[in-house]
Amino acid sequence: MNEIIRNTQSSVTHTSLDPQDWSEFRALAHRMLDETIDGIANIRARPVWQPIPDGVRAAFKADVPREASDLADVYRDFSEHVAPYATGNVHAGFMGWVHGGGTAVGVVAEMLAAGLNANLGGRDHMPIEVERQVVDWMRRLFAFPESASGIFVTGTSMANLMAVLVARTSALGTLARQYGIGNDGALLTAYTSQAAHGCVSRAMDIAGLGTDALRKVGVDADHRMDVAALRAQIAIDRDVGFKPFLVVASAGTVDIGAVDDLKAIAELCREEGIWFHVDGAFGALAIFSPELAPLLGGIELADSIALDFHKWGQVPYDAGFLLVRDSEQHRQAFAQPAAYLRREARGLAAGAVWPCDLGPDLSRGFRALKTWFTLKTFGTNRLGAVIARSCALAKYLETRVLAEPRLELLAPVNLNIVCFRYRAADEVNREIVADIQESGIAAPSSTTLDGRFAIRAAIVNHRTEESDIDALVAAVLEFGGRRSGGVIEVEAPPLAAQ
User: Fold this and answer.
1) N or C: less crowded end of the chain, CB within 10 Å?
2) pTM tops 0.90
């Protein structure tokens, strides 16, 4: 028997995936970290974005790696073929979508989280206490009761879906989780504005309620949900036998950053006995800024709030979050007893409510650590100043647009998003956006407002300055001139042509 054990041990001695030479690994790891930090520190020396060469894309069609490779060679592939062709949201000139710029602090926090390799599905360990502390901070900031609960998720799309599921369980009872939504579920109707993010409709689809059950209410001149129209639609639906159960308001709409009248919607939901959810993907974090927080008046009355720390919070992707006023209703929507999830009085399996009771995931990464590091390192005051600054830069861009006869402002500037266009046909503006992106000077995006193509600048990155706004405006004018028959003289960043 001992001989069998000895032979078995010798056959598995070298299966560990740890480095054989820790000193060599440590040196390379330090180099990786140093070059990552250098990339952030010197980000302005690079184009915001550049197209992926055909040869680089083709290299990623290689077969499954059967044999081991040297880590240095793998890192070289990353450095040469991945890093130069990323989205570009680390760059100050990235204004395309509402992507945060991340921070060096977040980079090292993510590294520390990876080192712990903690599973935050449950059990009794400090990483879960870190997440609970962030939940408590958010509860306090949004003036939610002590009974509130929260959980980190991938992003607001998932958080909005989970809010729909909590509201559905609240409306139908927990038996709906066992037997399905049934006849009562088929009558449920939800409401949001025409300006809401598409993930709300998708959430209704995934929740089994169907997109037709989502009523898209009209908006006013400021792109905010028309509360009178909302009230009228709810009354119509009740009269014909439907069961209104959810209203999703927006704190920062995807196209222009409008904030719905949260207080009025909250009061209406309270009168009607309807779950009030706020999609605050980026706008909810205006709560960090004393200057902007009043715009969120009424958010403290919500039944649930979805938000992303990886947007205005500058936490590296991904770090979405759902906050629910009533923790018991939250738990009832997801908790599921299982022998392997049994809670004990002591030991590693101790504890009452585990994170897996509050969402669909049993395996969960330590997203809370990079958020915890960010909040503790910078504080909400400094983060709030960054948020306010991005809104001030949006106002600066607005003044530049209004002062330039060749440009046209297409929507009110509510927070940090500016929608405008070069005074030319839609196709010209579409080409301008692609021209600017490919130049590496900036990275705006686009949308359609009232049937017209718009250049959309979402100013989120904490590194963005007035000079970056000026560069965007200059590029729009120059590329617009070229597309309209003029001559282009835009100077691209050093690496843009490579």
Assistant:
1) N
2) yes
